């Protein structure tokens, strides 16, 4: 299956009640994380400013916290949204499988919370490490304008593509003992689309779900092709 076809099928299923429930949960949790982060920044800035000036300056603390939350949201939204999605991707995958791949769905195994948590933490660690390692390269290309941004987009596209593939594949891998079903190019293009959507305000809330649903189609069609080869 081509990536455009997988994306089209994923878009067509966004109105599925099961998908809408996941969207509601992941949106609420993601926004709550940033809200709590904003409150923590406010308390921290207030304490620091009051200690430094010896007077209450609630306005400055609130302004600094708001600015800090916006900056954190801009840089960290993708990481937080995808981390949250790790715990609900299975619901998206099952919704897509129930509609399009019911026979395969019966063979899938249920991931336990411990396994999901381990996968999510490893994913978070890979994301942070890869972005830190990309910093020197991006710094060298900073003068080019778009070069630095391109480095981070490429790195994160590869990471996101892998995580979305694994969200589907892990439910079958131990049974089949097979290799990764999607090639590097397919994973990269899928990740690139999702990273692009994550950069668009409001639409970025849909990006992880759209990616998980598209990955489900791609992985299942790739596995079917391998089985019939």
From TrEMBL:
It is found in: Membrane. Keywords: Membrane, Transmembrane, Transmembrane helix. Its main location: membrane. It is a multi-pass membrane protein. InterPro entries: CysZ/EI24. The chain crosses the membrane at residues 27-45, 57-77, 133-161, 188-210. The keyword Coiled coil does not apply. The keyword S-adenosyl-L-methionine does not apply. This is Cysteine biosynthesis protein. The lineage of its organism: Bacteria, Pseudomonadati, Pseudomonadota, Alphaproteobacteria, Sphingomonadales.
């Amino acid at each position: 299956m081509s990536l455009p076809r997988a994306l089209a099928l994923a878009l067509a299923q966004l109105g599925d009640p099961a998908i809408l429930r996941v969207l509601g949960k992941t949106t609420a949790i993601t926004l709550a994380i940033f809200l709590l982060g904003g409150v923590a920044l406010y308390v921290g800035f207030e304490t620091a400013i009051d200690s430094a000036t010896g007077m209450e300056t609630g306005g400055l603390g609130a302004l600094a916290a708001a600015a800090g939350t916006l900056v954190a949201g801009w840089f960290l939204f993708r990481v937080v949204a995808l981390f949250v999605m790790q715990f609900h991707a299975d619901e998206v995958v099952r919704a897509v499988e129930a509609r399009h791949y019911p026979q395969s769905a019966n063979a899938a195994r249920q991931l336990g919370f411990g396994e999901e948590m381990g996968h999510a933490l490893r994913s978070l660690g890979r994301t942070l490490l890869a972005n830190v390692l990309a910093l020197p390269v991006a710094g060298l290309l900073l003068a080019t304008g778009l070069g630095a941004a391109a480095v981070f987009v490429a790195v994160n596209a590869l990471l996101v593509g892998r995580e979305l593939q694994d969200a589907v594949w892990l439910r079958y891998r131990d049974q089949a003992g097979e290799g990764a079903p999607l090639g590097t190019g397919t994973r990269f293009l899928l990740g690139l689309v999702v990273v692009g959507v994550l950069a668009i305000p409001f639409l970025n809330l849909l990006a992880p779900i759209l990616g998980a649903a598209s990955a489900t189609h791609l992985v299942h069609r790739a596995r079917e092709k391998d089985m019939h080869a």
